[in-house]
Amino acid sequence: MDERNHKSPEEWKKLINTISPTEFQNLCYSLINNRDGFVNPSVRGPGGDGGRDIEAEFVYKVANEEIREKCWFQCKRYTSSINFGNFSTEVQKADDQDVKKFFIISNADTAPKCKDDIKNWNNKHKCQIYDWTGLKFLDILHQSRDICRYYFPDEEVPPVVDAKKPGVAIELSSDVAKRFGLKLEFKAGKQFNPNNPSEVADVIKEGLLNLKNADINILALLYQKISMFFFSIERTEDALMFLNRSLDITPKNVEALLNKGFILERTDELDESNKCYDEILEIDSNNIFALNNKAHNLRRLGRYKEALKLADKALYADPNFIFAILNKVEVLKDLKKSKEALAFLEEKADLIEKSVNLQEQKVLLYIEMLDLKKAYDLNEDILKRDTDNLNAINNKGVVFEINSKFQKTEKYLPLALECFEKVVMRDNRFPLGLSNKTAVLIRYGLIDDAEKIADEAYTLLPKNAHVLNRKGAILHIRGKPKEALKYFDKALRLWSKEDFLLNRAQAQLDLNHWEEAKNDAMALLNYNPKRSEAWAIKGEALKHLRKPGVKTCFENAEKFKEKPISLLE
């Protein structure tokens, strides 16, 4: 369950005020366009407040008859509460023009008197006002995960329901049903603990599945909305069951397909996840979220060239899509084209200045290129602005650890360990921190301590590729290459990474599996022909296989030994 500390609602409201009015309108447009039932959104205006607002149609069926209702949306990025006078002129215009639904969208809340005024208006007019402000707006934003990450790429998207307050999910699901004239019936007299996520989930699941005589399109929407609650409390099967029920009714619901693809990726069903993105791309071949998410999956599968094509296509549609930029840089890095990746990233200087994610990616590129001084200096700039940034603390440790291989081990290895301990202390589920701390302890020769941490990490994160790889590495050191091989295989099935493949090749070598060791080394050299250790393993395997090329392999192993561009001293 996701128990990380996320920004509070008030912090999110303030964060939204940092984007421009135009960006806020674009955000609102994206959210409307992404919500099932709304079609043909377009910008209209200027409105009464000088801003340009949005109109769309809401489409649904009653007794097989399609109903289309005209909707207007007022988008207001405010720092203070909203009064009825802020939109009274526009809602009157909407009523005069037979608009059925009038939405107020804002990061700010409507004032208490405004809520009363809305209620009074709705009792007297055909045009109904819908309040999508404050917490309601944040709920809509956070449910649309890809859109939220697009506009706020440096932020963690909060779960649908706070893990510490699962009972709130009952209220939220009841509210969603109420908006469509439905009532969720919960078993009378059934006792459950509102602080127990699983018991809460059982109650909601029963209530949803027992809904009778509800319009199937409304059911589809309810199933879609509640699915991410089930995923957030690690009830993945239920989450997918509700999404599948929703998609059985509305198979072209892009938001539901994105959510399903995301859940399947997180549960390592990459091929099934890609099918969801393929379905979206059949509907909209330029959907940047489907393109980029599938590129990420293909990268995990080691299909780097295909991943690069999709990332490029997403960037052609939107050159400023930060997660596509990150994806392309990662793929280029995987293809050992770090200089090309750095040149591409530096073309985005204006975005780098605004995005911590891009700055961290630049640090990682410098580390990859062994330009450690530049990596350290840029990383320190990040830490000056945010001393609690776990990625930056971890990256600082990585710089120290690599630097210790080339100079002053006695100085820099303890500094690396200090960084990794700080990371793990703040988040004991941070995979790279756990893996890196284990690696340093191995270098110290503290194998028992390293194994204890690796076992604890495996208990917490049994399907994390970095944790599996590190557990395999310790078994290998213990002289158990056969057992280690199982963990390297598992890690590679989850994520095709160069270091995992190298470790497996070494284990094959130690098991006298010469052909397998050679094949793994050659697979690695296919996309990184300068990996010294891979040449050494291939040479050793060829020597035992009594095949030609041994001398060339060992010469290349020596030739391509890592040479840093810069060190810390």
Number of helices: 29
CATH fold topology of one domain = Trna Endonuclease, Chain: A, domain 1
CATH architecture assignment name of one domain? 3-Layer(aba) Sandwich
Assign an overall shape.
elongated
How far apart the termini lie comes to 43 Å
Mean pLDDT: 90
What structural category arises from helix and sheet content? alpha/beta
For the biggest sheet, the summary is: 5 strands, mixed
Question: What's this model, at a glance?
Answer:
With 569 residues, this protein is an alpha/beta fold. Among the domains are: 9-151, Trna Endonuclease, Chain: A, domain 1 (3-Layer(aba) Sandwich); 168-267, Alpha Horseshoe (Serine Threonine Protein Phosphatase 5, Tetratricopeptide repeat), CATH 1.25.40.10; 500-569, Alpha Horseshoe (Serine Threonine Protein Phosphatase 5, Tetratricopeptide repeat), CATH 1.25.40.
Structural notes for this entry:
This protein has 569 residues and is of the alpha/beta class. Among the domains are: 143 residues, 3-Layer(aba) Sandwich (Trna Endonuclease, Chain: A, domain 1), CATH 3.40.1350.10; 100 residues, Serine Threonine Protein Phosphatase 5, Tetratricopeptide repeat (Alpha Horseshoe); 70 residues, Alpha Horseshoe (Serine Threonine Protein Phosphatase 5, Tetratricopeptide repeat), CATH 1.25.40. Helix content is 64%, strand content 7%. A five-stranded mixed β-sheet has the order 1-2-3-4-5, sandwiched between helices. Helix 23 runs antiparallel to helix 24, helix 26 runs antiparallel to helix 27 and helix 27 runs antiparallel to helix 28. The longest helix has 18 residues. It is elongated, with a radius of gyration of 27 Å. The model has no long low-confidence stretch (mean pLDDT 90).
